[in-house]
Amino acid sequence: MPRRTATAALTAAALLLAAGCSSGDDAPGPAETSTGPSRGASASASPHGTPSAAPAKGSVKVVDTLTTGLDSPWGVAVLPGGDLLVASRDTGEILKVDAGSGRKTELGSVPGVAADGEGGLLGLAVASTFGADHLVYAYFTTASDNRIARMTYDDKRPAGDQLGAPDTVFKGIPKGHIHNGGRIAFGPDKMLYAGTGETGDGDQAQDKDSLGGKILRMTPDGEPVHGNPSADSVVYSYGHRNVQGLAWDAEDRLWASEFGQNTWDELNLIRPGGNYGWPDAEGRSGGKSSFVQPVEQWRTADASPSGIAYAKGSVWMAGLRGERLWRIPLRGTEPVAKPQAFLAGKYGRLRTVVPTGDGGLWLVTSETDKRGTPEKGDDRILRLKIT
What is the distance between the alpha carbons of residues 296 and 177, in angstroms, rounded to a whole number? Predict the structure, then answer.
């Protein structure tokens, strides 16, 4: 059921706590969105020579609540049969949620997770080879770094003991109390991508030798991929502040959401080797040719974006501080209309959005992450019908 509106006192307190960081602490402000074409990005043509376009206006309907009572849900991975794996940031547990009944089964906990601030058990991913190898990948914070490990999932074992010992495939990503990034996903090229944060140290984002403030591209074994901007590096793009959303469109182009600081959050089209400007630029940077410009930008009170998904010709973006779901309709790489906001304030902070496989979306709330105001039933997964 829709949640209550936060009181002015709670909003003011959250604003004080979040001064200087748009990680999603604050209550939403008035709608204020800046739109316009991306600079230097060309629309991809259809086979008939004209870019296909999403409708300027869409709609969202909450069909039902799949499950409730989740503890600090963060990463979500969809199994081949449609069921969901859900990571608990603070407990380090991974649950399976039945996509039909909503029944939850605990698979087990990831050893070594050190939950602190924005760190903990974050992104989850399964590769296209899951049917053969049953491997689940997890991005998580330890006492010394952020890293990616994989575990074998065996659903024949008793609940709570269905995950094998973690095999670390990549480590050494900087960790911090804030800005740990954490989203991982396998791309259409079957390579593993990871969004990282700069831990509050903006210099990391421009340092190509640092793994902080980057999008990384690696093999499933954690090795640099042939065709990366630097042959011996997993760094795919840089100049990022805190990437928590990754999604590919119908033409296999990579999109990413980006937390701003005090002014602009971003939706970016990712180019190999691209410099996205942080900390020298936040949002559109006055046309500096050395930086890739965002396709869209939002005031931080209206977004503070985490997960994104691509469905029905649009990018869908979950807002934490903004407490709303944004739809960005596209023609190729260009917006065809101003972004639309849905569900503003109805379910609180929104963390993750993923396609259902039948044209809809799963939407995961984030009220139990110590920055929300949890109510009975939080956190939950909603099933959305979209157009």
Answer: 28
